[in-house]
Specification:
heterodimer, A: mainly alpha, Serine Threonine Protein Phosphatase 5, Tetratricopeptide repeat, five-stranded mixed sheet, 45 helices, 5% strand, B: alpha/beta, Rossmann fold, five-stranded parallel sheet, 5 helices
Chain lengths: 914, 133
Amino acid sequence: MIALFAALLAAGASGQSSAPSSLERSYRRAISLKPSRWQPYANLAQLLAEAPDRWDRAEEILALLQRGLASVPAAAQPALSLRIADFERSVGRIAQAKARLAALQEANPRSDVARRLRELADGIGEEERARAIEDWPEPQVAEAPRAALAAAEARLEQGDAREALAASEKLCAEQPAWRGARWLRARALEAMGRVDEEARELRILTQLAPSHAAAWRRLGEILAQQGGLFEADRADEALRQALALEPSSIELWLLRARVAIRQGRAQDAQRALERFERAGGASPEVARLVAVARAQAGLAATAQEERPALQPREPSQQARALFQRAASAPPEMARQLLQEAVDDSPGFVDAVGALFALGAGVPEKTVQALDQDGPGLLELAARLRRAGSGAALVAPFLDRAVQLGAPEALHARAALRLEQGDRAGALEDLLAYAASPRPDHLEEARALRAQLVPPARDDVSALQARLRLVEDRPEAALAVLGGRCTPGSPSSRLLALGEVREFSGQLREALECYQLAGDVGLPRLARVAARSPDARAVPELQRAAGRGVPAALWALARIDLDQRKPDQALPLVERFLATAGPDDPGRADARAAREQILKTTTAATEARLRKRVAAALGAAALLAALASSFWGGATIERALRRAPRLFPTAARAAAEVRHDVLKHRASALGMLPSCRADVARALLSPEPASQAVARRYQELRKTGRAQGVSLRRLSREPVFGPLVRDLARAEDLLREPSGSEAELARLDERLRQLHAARLSSLLRLGPRTRLDAGAIAGWIRDVEAEMRRGGSSWTAPSILLQGMEVEFPVERGALSTIFANLLRNAQAAAQGGKVIVRLGEERDAAGRDLTVLLVGDSAPGGISLESIERRETGRGLALVRDLTREWQGHLVVRSEEPPWKKAVGACFPAPPAT
Amino acid sequence: MNFLVCEDGSEYTERFQRFLGGEFHFARAGHFAEALALAPQAGALLLDLDFHRTPRALLVDESGAPAAGCAEVQGILLLRALRSRGVRLPALLFADLDDPLRAAQLEKELAPLQIVSSAEGLPQIAVLLRRVV
């Protein structure tokens, strides 16, 4: 007993000064001296729940605690159980901890134990929420696909987005949860201007990797810039996630302000703008947005998504009646009635489930009836499980549902596989589920994941802090992390604290945290110091500059400028401009500062510098002008990716050249050697065909310039350039009576095969815009907001969308203008009556597949195509007419079924399948 | 043999006259009404696809009724309208259709019809015309 007291006293005394290991030794000694005392176990559990090496020793510690639980008196067991549960929590064994707490709860614990039990359960719940934002595990990827990914990345780098996309799609199909492939696919889609698909890809990527700041950021930008009101919530969520992960992306505050304005949240917009300025941001747009936010103050968004009700699986009337009678019949009778109901409607899963509960098997007819019905099989499996069936019975149904691609089948099968002990299979299903476009039960899937994947050993408080930031509660994030940055804290915690301070716009405090964090904090420190120079951080900035962090150079330069030492600042500015990335936020200010320094420095330095810089700049500018003249500009294909609006002009040029030159003029070459004079005339008059093509290309180049795109010189353009050269060569040969006929024959073949194919391929480069119900609803909200602001009447339109989405061969902005004008026109005509929006596909009498966008109304008066044709260009339906024609579509006016009267719309040839 | 060339300009007719005029006769129709009137004197039809230069009031749908919005596939609609009026002459349609299935379907529906790519040279077209004769 004396020895035990001594051991406990030693433990208590050493609590103030000793390292945890000596404390632990004391507790262990106390346990070995008297294993039936519960406190040493409890103290040990509490001590080790904080120990950094607890993860590696968890098995041994839990075994000891479990032995303790068996050794201590029954009265002490609840209290010790609580400590053990807390230890389990600390090593990520959440399911075990929860099971232990549930068992304790069952035993009606004393009030003090019950209170601690609740506290611990709350803590575990909070931790679960935080762990839910951990990334899903990355799948094992073999060397060959890794190499393929690297090659595709290089393709994208070189501007070949199409190839990169094809490669990434193959890789995504092989490994749906591989985020590297998905990130590449998203960027390739971006390079091709296919933002709808890009957003879908980014959503999947952020499901798989909630810590992917760049993906959140890009998703937020797309949704904020391209999406309507309908997407605004998701845009804000994505931007909040991006800012919580990377608070230096301060320009996202501006986007958040814009989104808030769109949603009518004027105060939130003003708050976001304040944050932007507090974080060191400056933009002329702030003043404009503040004015808009003020003007909009008081308006509230009322948009509510209307979800179509799901249709229940319907058995026949008779089967339903039998089922209802069975509910109140005695078992034998009920069985008979249910059997009849199932015979009548084999897919009636309620009846099959009830029959199973009464001891029958699953009828073969039911299995056959549901063989092609994934959701039906899922429902059947769920009913059978509720009726007490084993996992093995329903497994084939779930396999089939997965095969059929039923949306939630992977999730259901993962749970089943876990139950059957197939942990690898369960994880594989969960990963595929997390990589699916719209998983409804992602939260539950994450809970299952926690049972399969050992949790990351990271400090969970960092995840909890991130959650608080996403909720816009930096003060709560600080509380989670312990509030202050103190010397000796782990650098990961100091970094996290610094990020929270940065998020709050407390740049000085952020700087202090990063200073304390040591070398790992240098890049962040440099970025903050570049926005808010602080001379106290000079030693760290010099270290960061030595390690090649460009922002440190700019920060040091700003400090020198503040201290009126422009001569010292200039080389730093120059080095910064030479090394910083093209999108570094400090670039614009640094360039301005360099200009300023050059203006204000001493006369001699100024003269010397000016001479040197002017000479260098002059030479560089001359070289750049020469290079740009000879080598600058984009191919048509590339220009179309950058400016899809150029497509109608480019398509017209290609079609005209194909029709006028290849078909009607150059095709005469085939008639050689006879009628040489006629062939020569066909190619050379009224002007040489090569000149006609060159002229057409120059016109296209001019239109491109007007739209901000510089096309290559004709000689370097890969479609028109070689065509003009071949035509010119043929013309030269025809001008000479002895021009080689063999060469002319070769040119004829090149013109008919190679050049015709190249021109045709240009016609397939048009942009595509996919519209689904969400996109249409967003556009409708935009028109509604605008019409209501203008005091016009508004009636919520019905939407009739054929299939899940319709793809239009029209640039998104042009299509939204067409749609907005059609809708405004119908709203104005309906005057509070009914309006309908229809999107779909159809085939016309020429056998073409068309995509159709129609807006109908219930106004009695008619409208004719001729009357629209006669309207002056500019707005309303005349604008619809002109834009539709520009994008190679045509207007339609149709009568509508009551209660609507007529519809006006646009048809476009469906884009060729890719 | 007389070929009736249906086109919105006159490029086909002139080209055929110049290079193949020694062997065949060509007449031109600029829209459906003309084509319907000249069909009885023709032995075969040669059709362009796109009729953008034809006045919109003269464009027709597949039944021959006025329809202003169908210039880009007018050649097919014009032939359909002729077929619906009992004109069974063999026809060549000069068109670059992306979808071979669609081309085959049209050739079947509007038979006797052959769709000819714009990349075909005049000698190949002459072969086709001789085959029709």
